[in-house]
Structure formats: structure tokens, C-alpha cells
């Protein structure tokens, strides 16, 4: 079962590692969008959140304080949903639907991150294929 959990961790975390790469490779475009949502300076938010999610994703893949990493991702996802994907304030129907999809995706992934947090804390040091045990617990 440890191998299945490791594969699941890697698949879950790759979304965030890939997203972080996108934050860095498309920082100017994402910064402009971030600023259009009222967050300034946009570049600081984009690069900071990219670094935040990259670190958390790598921590989950390697099994280093996965509980902390899961909380980091949950915080990022809820904040991104509420601050960036504000579908309720978008007048265009297509854009509104797109933002609502991203909002719901972020909340769903935040739920998954919280499940991972609870799982890691409950498993304690008994979680296989990890470099450290949980930080909390």
C-alpha cells in the first residue's frame, strides 16, 4: 500500500510543480492578470505563489513534512479561489463559467490537500516512503 500512496502523492503534487513552472515561465502574463484582479504588485504574487507551490509540491513528492506541505497547498488554493477566480463578479458569461470552473477546482484540490494533511498526521511516523514524519501531531 505504501507504493500506491507514493504514486498518489507524486500524481497529486505534479499538478502543483507543473503549475509553479507555469508561474515562472509565464510570469508577465500571469502578473498582468493578477493585477487586473486587484493584487499588486502582480509579479510578486505570481512568483511568490509559484515558489510556495513548488516547495510544497516537492515536499510532498519527497515525503518531507507532508502535513505542512498539504496545509501550504490548501492555503494557496483557497486564497487563489477567492482572490483570483471571483466568478461572481465576472459579467461575461463564458469568462464567468471559466472562472467558476477554476474556483471549484481549487476548492476541490484544497479539500484533497486537507485530506492529505489529516492522513499524514494520523499515520504519523508509520507512513512509508517518506523522508520525515509529520511536523504536526
From TrEMBL:
Pfam families: DoxX. Keywords: Cell membrane, Membrane, Transmembrane, Transmembrane helix. It is found in: Cell membrane. InterPro entries: DoxX, DoxX-like_oxidoreductase. The keyword Zinc-finger does not apply. The chain crosses the membrane at residues 6-24, 44-62, 68-88, 109-131. One of its GO terms (cellular component) is plasma membrane. Its main location: membrane. It is a multi-pass membrane protein. Belongs to the DoxX family. This is DoxX family protein. It comes from Mycolicibacterium thermoresistibile (strain ATCC 19527 / DSM 44167 / CIP 105390 / JCM 6362 / NCTC 10409 / 316).
Amino acid at each position: 500500500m505504501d507504493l500506491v500512496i507514493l504514486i498518489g502523492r507524486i500524481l497529486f503534487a505534479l499538478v502543483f510543480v507543473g503549475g509553479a513552472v507555469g508561474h515562472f515561465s509565464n510570469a508577465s502574463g500571469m502578473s498582468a492578470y493578477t493585477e487586473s484582479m486587484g493584487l499588486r504588485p502582480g509579479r510578486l504574487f505570481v512568483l511568490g505563489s509559484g515558489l510556495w507551490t513548488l516547495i510544497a509540491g516537492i515536499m510532498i513528492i519527497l515525503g518531507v513534512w507532508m502535513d505542512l506541505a498539504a496545509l501550504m497547498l490548501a492555503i494557496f488554493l483557497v486564497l487563489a479561489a477567492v482572490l483570483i477566480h471571483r466568478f461572481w463578479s465576472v459579467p461575461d458569461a463564458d469568462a464567468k463559467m471559466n472562472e467558476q470552473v477554476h474556483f471549484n477546482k481549487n476548492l476541490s484540490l484544497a479539500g484533497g490537500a486537507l485530506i492529505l494533511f489529516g492522513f499524514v498526521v494520523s499515520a504519523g511516523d508509520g507512513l512509508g516512503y517518506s523522508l520525515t514524519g509529520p511536523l504536526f501531531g
